[in-house]
Write a structure and sequence with these properties.
By secondary structure, this protein is an alpha/beta fold. It has one domain. Helix content is 40%, strand content 14%. The protein has a 6-stranded mixed sheet with strand order 1-4-3-2-5-10. Strands 7, 8, 9 and 11 form a 4-stranded mixed sheet that branches. It is globular and about 50 Å long.
Length: 365
């Protein structure tokens, strides 16, 4: 595990040597926020630090367990300056039984504008999105997978599970999908339309009509590295400013809406992305994405996640924490952490997750 300052320089030094070996590999990047004892502005606090710690352990451990290590170039965690030591300690324990090299860097090294005195109107959610775009400059591979700490890998996968024939497999959603899944499909449809309109306004690009009605899935998403760099240059050139400052000063955007609109408008979408159904990367139907009352068919939370014996669906699921877990958490669990332990056990990594989390609790991480 590599952590702390200077990581960008270290990675750039080895870029020339490693570039030729990354053709069939992927990189993973994951923004991370863990609670700490230091005083932070309200906008940067995490109110469930113990849950966030266990989430991170489960997310990273599941990827290491199920993703083919020979296809992994770089795994990068980007976290708050205050959380570096905590995340470093967790990753060191996770790495004890694996050869995977995980970088842990400060978000300030990647995005200096995120200093505590600047741009405090950005929400934690927007900070994560900004990081996912900025991370392109750290990646050697042609594509990278943007993750959040609430993802869980549930089955074996490799680079071909994400990229085939030089194109990233891409979750695509349409109104029919929302109608099948949700009690109020129009609400989700309006959200997607609004995000696209906001992206159109910020990029000063009109969406081609042939793409109307097509929406792209959320995290995890496979991004084309050079196109992300091209997008950020375009934003900077359009506003004659640093692209990060432009996004920090305009709150009405989401990273994937910006990225995919740019790809559509520049004609790169067909070159670098292969359109698929809603289940290709993220197993949306089996993810704890919304409250049960918003779903036409609530999940079997007692036995979650359900096994996909034929690998028909994406290798990732998500457990969202923005809504109260009491709305869905089975009564047999005393709390969300007990649920996470059960998930780890079902995926065959309960001992590792329990051991790492127990050690973290002892050391106060």
């Amino acid at each position: 595990m590599v952590a702390g300052h200077g990581i960008l320089e270290i990675m750039n030094e080895t870029e020339r040597e490693t570039r030729s070996n990354t053709q069939n590999k992927l990189s993973f990047i994951m923004p991370v926020a863990i609670g700490s004892n230091r005083v932070l502005p309200k906008w940067r606090k995490n109110t469930k630090s113990t849950t966030a710690t266990l989430q991170l352990i489960l997310a990273v451990t599941s990827i290491i367990r199920f993703f083919n290590k020979d296809h992994l170039d770089t795994f990068i965690l980007i976290t708050r300056e205050e959380d570096i030591d905590v995340v470093r300690g967790l990753i060191t324990r996770i790495e004890a039984d694996t050869s995977v090299r995980i970088y842990v860097i400060s978000e300030l090294e990647l995005c200096p504008l995120l200093s505590l005195s600047n741009h405090t109107t950005l929400s934690g959610w927007q900070v994560q999105q900004l990081i996912k775009l900025a991370a392109a400059k750290m990646v050697n591979t042609s594509f990278y997978v943007a993750l959040d700490a609430d993802v869980i890998c549930t089955r074996k996968c490799d680079a071909t599970s994400f990229v085939q024939n030089g194109k990233a497999l891409t979750n695509v959603q349409r109104y029919f999908d929302y109608y099948r899944l949700y009690n109020n499909p129009s609400k989700e449809n309006r959200i997607k339309i609004k995000r696209t309109k906001n992206a159109s306004a910020l990029l000063k690009m009109k969406r081609p009509m042939r793409y109307w009605g097509r929406y792209y899935g959320d995290t995890p998403v496979v991004l084309h590295t050079e196109s992300v760099k091209s997008l950020t240059r375009y934003i900077g050139d359009t506003y004659s400013s640093e692209w990060q400052d432009v996004l920090a000063e305009n709150n009405n955007w989401t990273e994937y809406a910006l990225y995919f609109l740019y790809m559509e408008k520049t004609g790169k979408i067909q070159r670098y992305h292969s359109m698929s159904g809603r289940q290709t990367i993220l197993n949306l139907d089996n993810s704890i994405w919304l409250m049960p009352q918003r779903l036409k068919k609530p999940l079997d939370y007692e036995n979650w996640p359900q096994e996909d014996l034929n690998n028909h669906h994406g290798p990732f699921v998500v457990v969202q924490t923005w809504f109260d877990e009491k709305s869905w958490l089975p009564t047999k669990y005393k709390g969300i952490n007990e649920f996470y332990y059960s998930v780890a056990q079902r995926l065959g990594m309960g001992d590792v997750v329990s051991k790492v989390n127990h050690e973290a609790e002892i050391t106060g991480e």
